[in-house]
Amino acid sequence: QQQVTTTMTLKPRVAENAEIPYPLYIYAFDTQTGNLICYQQFINENTPTTLNINTGNYTIVALSGIEHNQAININNIDATYTLPEVGYATTPIMMGTANVTITKDATLTMTLYNQVAAIEIALYDIPQHVTDVTCSFSPLHATLSVNGKTSGTCAASIPLEYVGDHWQS
Fold it and tell me: Are 32 and 57 in contact (CB under 8 A)?
């Protein structure tokens, strides 16, 4: 059977009032084996989001908010992203998935959802004599797999800084 190369154009979307933290990584995994067939990095919203892939059945994963060195280590659908040692992400990690059968050139509209949210903290009315404030969160998941599963637990302590009249992250 001859493989036909097709072009799949991805149109990433997010919930209202949210933005995709670029770079955005698009992965095509063979649906049967879970192995990575190809991936593409997109620097910003102006980068054409297309993949040239053979006809077939794929699980397409769009992932953003992860560090580049973690992105290049993804070689199958069970690969995991581990949060940095501090236990929290500095940008939201968003992901969208779709199972597709590609038989000809296609366009896929995919919604990305928060997997690891970013939190902004502001505390007011802290007594003036306080010189150091830290917020702790627990339990958090330590890893996120490309197939959307979370595992492990960790805690994070986020130091706050005094800005104007309040402490914030």
Answer: yes
Q: How many CB atoms lie within 10 A of CB 22?
A: 15
Q: Taking the CA atoms of the chain, what radius of gyration do you get in angstroms?
A: 19
The token pair that represents 86 in the structure block:
């501090």
What are the phi and psi torsion angles at 68 (to 5°)? -55, -40
DSSP classification of residue 70: H
* The two three-digit tokens of residue 21, written as one number: 């933290």
Summarised one tens digit per residue, pLDDT across range 65-115 is 877 656 667 889 988 776 666 556 667 788 888 999 988 888 888 888 877
Handedness of CA 89, 24, 63, 108 (dihedral sign): positive
Predicted structure pTM score: 0.74
